[in-house]
């Protein structure tokens, strides 16, 4: 501030972001010799302070909302005020403290501010409004805010556009407003989503489909309810900025999005936001369904640039959070991806996978996502659990999809959120008046649960859950593949490959190291799946593993997170029969449980009929062993579910991929001939030969495309 500013003047001021405020505080602490002090933000509005100095913890706490709604001068004053406390312990607000505060540059040396945080402005920020801050300077600096809410206005009279009714007739959507003027929009012509086929299909194949899978190649097509979802997205985005898919976990929400994008290339460039552990899953699915034309960039570090001319970009939510940390040497490092790079790229559509991650309107992650959504034309949120505990958690995503219907968090909570007394405590519940709410948002979202679409699924629903290998495991895996290819080529040259199926020098023995590396490498992806599963439903789950150490690590990790909520059980080979029986009984008697089981140990003598969900963490070379475990252990007398879901954790472009393609093709061909009720007869020798040839072809193709792959994955 300069002395030229007159009293009672009103002027615009600069503001600091949360990260900039933390960075400034770190820098000032270091300047003052407090190199072992820390900085922390709080979003608790009820805390009653703008800043706080904790001597015992050597921490300065700053109010995030204080930073959001006040100017840089006030924020710096608060920071220097608290640092003065840190430098004068025990002096409160006496003259010694006051002298130190002035020395640090405080323009206000009154006791810790009791300035209340303006609740209306905080609600406006939470609700996506644009805030213009001005400061009226009298004897005391008084902040004033100008709130600009996002409200659609009638093009005819300029009044706020409030929908009164709508009619669809002959391909025309007519919306009547409360001011009695009309908005007329032409509905799109029917899009042939039913013709959508995955991009990994063989172009020369005539495609004989068994359900949704071609029996002659790797082609796949969507279920009819997924086609309905694509149509719903198309219609919803006509009258809303966003449309949400809230189908239950496992119903293929991303497939529906990719189908919509396939027929609407004008929606690109597309930004896909998801959990860090799911980046490669979504990337690989985009290639399977959309093909190389939609090849995208996975942005993994804050230093990555945004490659031009691509149709799709994949970024984790964690990358968007602005963070500032201090190294041991005292250096201040800013972390987080600069979202302006994406905004400058001109992103048109943003897909918010697992959108419940932005349920907290005060979180830095939500604020960053909001900035991205504001700059884009459309947003498509995805989640099986859009809110978990409180109805207000639903507001952030509703506000992003339609800021005209949901312009204020306070108003949303008053109108739609249920509250109740738990003893003497007034608590927030879920959504109030659910039928009315569903009617109000029917053009903004769609949700189907598993039971509603069960008839469309095969008796055993097998789903691939892709993951990539980290750099260390990828290097070990590539080395094992190289060794195998050299061994196989030698067998082919000598003409002895057919005799290499069995014996001590056989294919399975040669692939043992490759298999173990994959099992360990897939543990993080498996944990990500388990977390999503636990969040999404309250059913039981069985994880099948091959190696003892893989099972033990998963058991320890899952127990650490969930053992206090429900039983975590472990079925191993060589277990005492009595113990196996009690383990089975405990699992079947429990309302909710997770079991980690050895595939071979669970292949016989155990009945898991109270469960219908399985995960194959490690694949078996002999498909019969897998079939005995899943679905074999579940399709038993007493099973109440008509379907069994089997999720295969799959390493992208690994032997997992090759084996699955071979086995599922043979399974479809068998059932096409023999009928769905028969058990396939597996010729392991033929399968292993195809696996070996597939590994060699995959190895050679990767060598040819290595430069391109590095370019795409950079």
Residue fraction in strands? 15-25%
CATH class of the largest domain: Alpha Beta
Count every beta strand, where a strand is a DSSP E run of 2 or more residues. 28
What is the global morphology? globular
Write down the CATH topology of the largest domain: Rossmann fold
**Radius of gyration based on Cα positions:** 30 Å
Oligomer category: single chain
Largest sheet: 6 strands, parallel
Task: Indicate the mean pLDDT.
Answer: 83
Q: Roughly how many Å apart are the termini?
A: 45 Å
Number of helices: 25
- The residue fraction in helices comes out at 25-40%
- pLDDT below 50 for ≥5 consecutive residues: which ranges? 1-12, 708-714
Describe it.
The chain is an alpha/beta fold and 714 residues long. The chain is built from 25 helices and 28 strands. Helices cover 39% and strands 19% of the residues. Helix 3 (72-87) crosses helix 4 (95-104) and helix 19 (523-536) packs parallel to helix 20 (548-562). Mean pLDDT is 83; it is low at 1-12 and 708-714.
Helices, strands, pairings?
Blueprint: E1 9-12, H1 18-31, E2 38-42, E3 51-54, E4 59-63, H2 64-69, H3 72-87, H4 95-104, H5 119-126, E5 130-137, E6 141-148, E7 163-169, E8 172-177, E9 182-186, E10 209-210, E11 213-214, H6 224-239, E12 244-245, H7 253-262, E13 270-274, H8 279-290, E14 296-299, E15 312-316, H9 317-320, E16 323-326, E17 332-335, H10 340-345, E18 349-352, H11 364-375, E19 378-381, H12 395-401, H13 409-416, E20 417-422, E21 425-431, H14 434-440, E22 445-446, H15 450-453, E23 460-467, H16 471-494, H17 507-510, H18 512-521, H19 523-536, E24 541-545, H20 548-562, E25 568-571, H21 577-589, E26 594-598, E27 613-616, H22 623-629, E28 644-651, H23 655-674, H24 684-704, H25 706-713
Helix pairs in contact: 1-3, 3-4, 6-7, 7-8, 16-18, 16-24, 19-20, 23-24
């Amino acid at each position: 501030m300069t002395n030229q500013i007159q009293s009672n003047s009103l002027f615009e001021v600069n503001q600091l972001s949360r990260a900039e405020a933390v960075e400034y505080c770190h820098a000032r602490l270091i300047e003052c010799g407090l190199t072992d002090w820390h900085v922390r933000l709080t979003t608790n509005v009820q805390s009653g302070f703008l800043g706080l100095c904790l001597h015992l913890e050597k921490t300065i706490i700053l109010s995030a909302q204080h930073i959001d709604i006040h100017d840089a001068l006030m924020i710096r004053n608060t920071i220097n005020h608290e640092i003065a406390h840190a430098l004068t312990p025990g002096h409160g607000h006496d003259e010694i403290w006051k002298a130190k505060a002035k020395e640090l540059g405080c323009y206000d040396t009154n006791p810790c501010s009791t300035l209340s945080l303006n609740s209306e402005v905080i609600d406006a920020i939470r609700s996506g409004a644009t805030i213009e801050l001005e400061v009226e300077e009298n004897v005391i600096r008084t902040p004033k805010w100008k709130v600009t809410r996002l409200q659609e206005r009638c093009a005819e009279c300029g009044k706020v556009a409030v929908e009164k009714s709508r009619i669809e007739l002959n391909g025309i959507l007519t919306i009547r407003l409360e001011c009695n003027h009309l908005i007329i929009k032409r509905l799109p012509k029917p899009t042939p989503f039913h013709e959508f086929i995955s991009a990994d299909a063989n172009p020369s194949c005539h495609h004989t489909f068994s359900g949704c899978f071609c029996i002659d190649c790797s082609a796949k097509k969507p279920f009819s309810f997924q086609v309905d979802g694509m149509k719903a997205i198309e219609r919803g985005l006509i009258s809303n900025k966003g449309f949400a898919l809230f189908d239950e976990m496992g119903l293929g929400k991303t497939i529906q999005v990719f189908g919509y994008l396939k027929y609407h290339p004008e929606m690109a460039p597309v930004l896909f936001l998801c959990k860090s552990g799911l980046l490669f899953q979504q990337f690989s699915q985009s290639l399977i369904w959309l093909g190389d034309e939609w090849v995208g960039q996975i942005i993994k570090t804050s230093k990555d640039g945004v490659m031009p001319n691509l149709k799709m970009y994949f970024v984790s939510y964690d990358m968007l959070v602005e963070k500032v940390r201090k190294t041991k040497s005292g250096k201040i490092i800013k972390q987080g991806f600069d979202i302006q790079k994406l905004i400058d790229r001109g992103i048109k559509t943003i897909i918010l996978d697992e959108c419940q991650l932005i349920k907290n309107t005060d979180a830095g992650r939500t604020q960053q996502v909001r900035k991205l959504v504001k700059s884009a034309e459309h947003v498509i949120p995805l989640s099986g659990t859009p809110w978990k505990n409180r109805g207000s958690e639903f507001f952030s995503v509703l506000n992003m999809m339609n800021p005209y219907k949901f312009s204020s968090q306070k108003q949303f909570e008053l109108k739609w959120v249920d509250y109740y007394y738990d003893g003497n405590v007034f608590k927030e519940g879920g959504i109030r008046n659910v039928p009315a709410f569903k009617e109000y948002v029917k053009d903004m979202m769609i949700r189907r649960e598993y039971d509603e679409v069960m008839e469309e699924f095969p008796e055993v629903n097998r789903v691939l859950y892709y993951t990539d290998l980290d750099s260390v495991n990828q290097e070990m895996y590539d080395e094992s593949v190289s060794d195998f290819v050299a061994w196989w080529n030698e067998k082919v040259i000598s003409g002895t490959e057919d005799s290499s199926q069995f014996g001590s020098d056989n294919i399975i023995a040669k692939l043992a190291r490759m298999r173990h590396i994959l099992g360990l490498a897939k543990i993080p992806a498996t944990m990500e799946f388990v977390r999503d599963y636990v969040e999404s439903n309250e059913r039981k789950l069985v994880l099948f593993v091959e190696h003892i150490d893989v099972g033990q690590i998963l058991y320890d990790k899952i127990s650490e997170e969930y053992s206090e909520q429900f039983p975590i059980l472990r079925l191993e080979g060589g277990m005492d029969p009595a113990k196996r029986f009690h383990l089975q009984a405990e699992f079947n008697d429990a309302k909710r449980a997770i079991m980690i089981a050895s595939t071979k140990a669970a292949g016989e003598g155990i009945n898991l009929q109270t469960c219908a969900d399985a995960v194959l963490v490690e694949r078996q070379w002999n498909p019969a062993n897998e079939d005995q475990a899943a679905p074999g252990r579940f399709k038993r007398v007493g099973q109440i579910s008509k379907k069994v879901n089997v999720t295969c954790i799959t390493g992208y472009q690994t032997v997992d991929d090759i084996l699955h393609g071979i086995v599922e093709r043979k399974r479809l061909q068998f059932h096409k001939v023999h009928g769905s009720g028969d058990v396939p007869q597996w010729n392991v020798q033929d399968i292993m030969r195809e696996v070996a040839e597939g590994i060699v072809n995959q190895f050679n193709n990767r060598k040819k495309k290595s430069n391109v792959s590095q370019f795409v994955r950079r």
